[in-house]
Automatic annotation (TrEMBL):
This is Uncharacterized protein. Residues 198-225 form a coiled coil. It comes from the Bacteria. Residues 226-241 have a biased composition (Basic and acidic residues). Residues 226-250 are annotated as: Disordered. The lineage of its organism: Bacteria, Bacillati, Actinomycetota, Actinomycetes, Kitasatosporales. Keywords: Coiled coil.
Length: 250
């Protein structure tokens, strides 16, 4: 279970690193945007006096047919802002690429730490009857089927046996829940299974723990609504069997 917790801690650390990398990327993009607008403002300041000069050169350029003399301020502003935009796009692309690289590295590291070694894909094991018979067996479905069959054929001789059976259900469900918890631990520590298997078994364990709470409520209901009957059994009055319905035909 310690390795499982370490794997979870590693995934939490990877998620934290990803958030930090994303925050760093956003900070870099924000800085890039501010630098871009700063350069645009500087371009406007530089282009303004040239634009004033263009009030004289533009009409002259129209008369002479020289486009180079027309709107010099506007063309200078477009040139400077175009370079600023290209530089900003390069910075933004670099920031996003660095984030993607860091994110992928974190994912690869977390995946490498939480994955167990796998057998080759062409590795096959044929289990014969003798090999299977020598394997220590734990078939949960067989045990559960036996329990179901026992419940189906259950024919108690007295009501207190039924009461005790119901009162023991929380303990029984706790054992079943612990079975999945143990399997989750073994799947993570001893068996060549991926971490998702242990996580799925852990989810089953959590659901079964909630069923234990429901079974405890059943036990409380039984004790409450049959309190008088249970007390008569545990603290019988003198001659209590005489009140048995089988002894009172009339």
């Amino acid at each position: 279970m310690d390795r499982w917790r370490e794997g979870r801690a590693e995934r939490v650390r990877a998620a934290r690193q990803r958030r930090l990398a994303k925050r760093s990327m956003r900070r870099a993009l924000r800085s890039s945007r501010l630098r871009y607008w700063g350069r645009c403002l500087g371009a406007a300041v530089l282009a303004a006096p040239v634009g004033v000069l263009g009030l004289v050169t533009t009409p002259l350029g129209r008369r002479l047919g020289w486009p180079g003399l027309m709107h010099p301020g506007r063309r200078l502003f477009r040139l400077l802002t175009g370079k600023a935009r290209a530089t900003r796009e390069e910075r933004d692309a670099l920031a996003r690429a660095m984030f993607e690289t860091a994110d992928q590295d974190e994912r690869d590291a977390a995946d490498l730490l939480t994955r167990v070694p796998r057998a080759p894909r062409n590795h096959h094991l044929l289990l014969t009857g003798d090999a299977m018979s020598d394997t220590p067996g734990f078939l949960f479905d067989a045990s559960a089927s036996e329990m179901e069959e026992a419940a189906n054929s259950y024919d108690p001789s007295g009501a207190m046996h039924v009461v005790n059976t119901l009162l023991g259900m929380p303990t029984a469900l706790t054992s079943i829940a612990n079975t999945f918890k143990i399997l989750a631990e073994k799947s993570d520590e001893d068996f060549p299974l991926e971490k998702e298997v242990a996580e799925a078994l852990e989810e089953v364990y959590k659901h079964l723990k909630r069923s234990v709470e429901a079974a405890e409520e059943v036990a409380e209901v039984v004790e409450r609504v049959h309190e008088h009957d249970i007390r008569r059994h545990k603290e019988p009055r003198k001659g209590e069997p005489m009140w048995d319905t089988s002894n009172n035909d009339d």
